Amino acid sequence: MPPFSHILAGLSLGLRHRRQLRLLLDETPDNTCILTLAPETLKSAGISALALDFDGVLAHHGAPAPLPEAVEWMKQCQAVFGGERIFILSNKPTEGRRAWFDVHFPSFRFISGVRKKPYPDGLTKTEALAGVPLSQILMVDDRLLTGCLAAINAGVRPCYIRKPYVSLSQHTGAEMFFMLLRIGERCIVRLFS
User: Fold this and answer.
1) Are 104 and 69 in contact (CB under 8 A)?
2) Which of 32, 44, 97, 164 is the Cys-Cys partner for 142 at CB 3.0 to 4.6 Å?
3) Is pLDDT at 186 greater than 80 in this prediction?
4) CATH number of residue 182's parent domain
5) Are 157 and 138 in contact (CB under 8 A)?
6) Higher-confidence residue: 29 or 14?
7) Which residues have CB under 8 Å from 21's CB, separation 6+?
């Protein structure tokens, strides 16, 4: 597979699913972060498994481990869903992050060996491992044209994080790049829908 094919897929699939992306964008409050997602409320809404992006969702870009508040939220999620139904679906699943989860949340699983988001492969693998229908999986991501688009494409419920974790002091260049990327994605979705 050619490098960056997931970027071209994002643009192509984004055009195909532009109305759903626009609806998601318009309906998501500006302050949405993982801390605004109550695990009990998600469960009562029919969610049985979680697929979580890492960068921007659990920590700032490039962080080796989730932030303390994300750790507390994941503990709540583990109590509600069980760790075997919580997955890390990141386009950057580093070995350091895997090692951290092996120590702190050993029942959480990284999804790997699949094409990057926005391809739905990671979510169909999540479905198989969790043993729940795609419609009962929630994909939590801070990017419209990667994780949210993969969710829409797969028939999984997307949760768009509009207030991602950012640390300009630690990774200024990367954070600025992803801030501009998120703004660009929102502009593309608004322009073409």
Assistant:
1) no
2) 164
3) yes
4) 3.40.50.1000
5) yes
6) 29
7) 14, 144, 145, 148, 149, 152, 189, 193
The residue count for the chain: 193
Reading the block at residue 3, the tokens are 């490098």
Residue 40 has pLDDT above 70, yes or no: yes
The tens digit of pLDDT for each residue in 103-148 reads 999 999 999 999 999 999 999 999 999 999 999 999 999 999 999 9
What is residue 141's three-state secondary structure? strand
State which residues form the domain around 122: 5-192
Domains in the chain, number:
1
138 by DSSP, 3-state: which?
A: strand
Q: Give counts: helices (H), strands (E), the chain.
A: 8, 5
pLDDT of residue 170: 86
pTM for the whole thing?
0.93
- Unique residue bearing structure tokens 């498994």: 49
Helix (H, G, I), strand (E, B) or coil at 3: coil
- Which neighbouring-strand residues pair with 59? 55
Alpha-carbon span 124 to 6, nearest angstrom: 17
3-state DSSP assignment of residue 52:
strand
Block residue for tokens 């990667």: 146
